[in-house]
Amino acid sequence: FRSVARFQREVFPQHQELFAALATRQRPDALFLTCSDSRIDPCLLTQTQPGVLFICRVIGNIVPPYPDAVGGVSATVEFAAGVLRVPDIIVCGHTDCGVMRGALNPDMVADHPTVRAWLKHAEVHERDADPSAATILALAEQNVVRQLRNLRTHPSVAARVAAGELRLHGWVYNIGPGVVTEYDEVAEKFLPITGAGQAR
Ligand code: ZN
Question: Whole-prediction pTM value?
Answer without folding.
Answer: 0.94
